[in-house]
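idk why but the lab printer keeps eating my pages so im just putting this in chat instead. protein + zinc ion:
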Amino acid sequence: EIASVEALRVWDSRGNPTVEVAITTASGAQGRAIAPAGASRGSREALDLRDGGSKLGGMDVRKAVANVNEVIAPKLIGMDVNDQRGIDDTMIALDGTPLKSTLGGNAVVASSLAVMHTAAAAEGVPLWAHLAKKYERQPSIPLPEIQIFGGGAHASQRIDIQDFMVMVPGASDFEEVMEVTSEIFRAAGSLMTQRGGAVGVADEGGWWPSFQTNEEGLELLVEAIELAGETPGDRVVISLDIAASEFASNGKYRLGLEDRDLSSDQMIALLGKWIDTYPIASIEDPLDEDDREGTIAFTQEFGDRIQIIGDDYITTSETMLRKAAGEGACNAVLVKVNQAGTVSEMLDTFMAAEDLGYRNVISARSGETEDVSITHMSAGLGGGQLKVGSFTRSERMVKWNECLRLQNAPGMGGFAAGESLANTWWG
Ligand code: PGA
Ligand code: ZN
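predcted complex ->
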């Protein structure tokens, strides 16, 4: 039984305020969680409540914190902490809007995640083990997607494409993924230094992209993979998040870096050329979240060769996922708990994806913290793939390091590795 629910204003990796919720049961078990925050958000995802005004750039969360303490807490106190669904439904009803704009997606998601942590604490088991048991899942260590160059909204739109990432599906264990990725990250850093200019990092810790064209990011990434002693496409493959909604408007795709506008068909042709030229195994949001025709056409053309992930396109919504599946759009879904707003809604999407034959990629946000909930969710649910950002900065590394801790835990399954890329050219 929940005895107290308390929100605290804490700070995320961009130095923005965010909501932490701590829940305590009558028997003294306690769990806590922090809301993450996106920058390249889908228009249909749960809305974070921000105070606006001039203070802290309008980003303050005092209203969201007050909503937890004054509105959510009185309803949750006395409820059974194991009743995740009942608690989430209570908050959904209390909010009463599709995007959780009354209470704030940040207030609701931190509360929902804290319930999950507290239930695990009450049972006296780690979160991943609690989830595996409660939802009858085979736990496993996920295959990571790790960012090497960060662009798009995470680098002031310095280049148009958002994430240039590597995956190591040919690794035999998680240690090997970390080591290979570290070598590639270093190699990419020395290539950037050689080319001159300041070398810094973007929002998720990937190298700041000082390129003349978007494709140069791919060329450099292949060079970095080779410099690290790897054969591109062998043990290591490339994954891209185009985050196309960020540079699409009125049916046109504006490649600002290259000063040109592409139609949907031209955008598909450009990505097709890249798929033919580089060892790309996965592409996320290839087209605008409202470009249904384009996304369906892209999936028809490339869906049997690569993984196509819907992030802004599906926004972790079961309804949107079912719609996409009915139309033949995408073959994988990015799963972000704060897009859905509650753990239960996220689980609905996750389970539906499995039923529909879509791959699940559990993901962090660009604004992150020391919270490791998603590592435990990915491992405990046997999620297959995990996307967390780059290979620097502790709000990222804390999630990878937690995988290292979990891999040897009693009861944990093996490393998900390449099987999650089955039915692509790599698999
Ligand atoms: P966001 O982007 O967290 O900034 O919204 C991450 C992504 O697009 O995957
Ligand atoms: Zn994305």
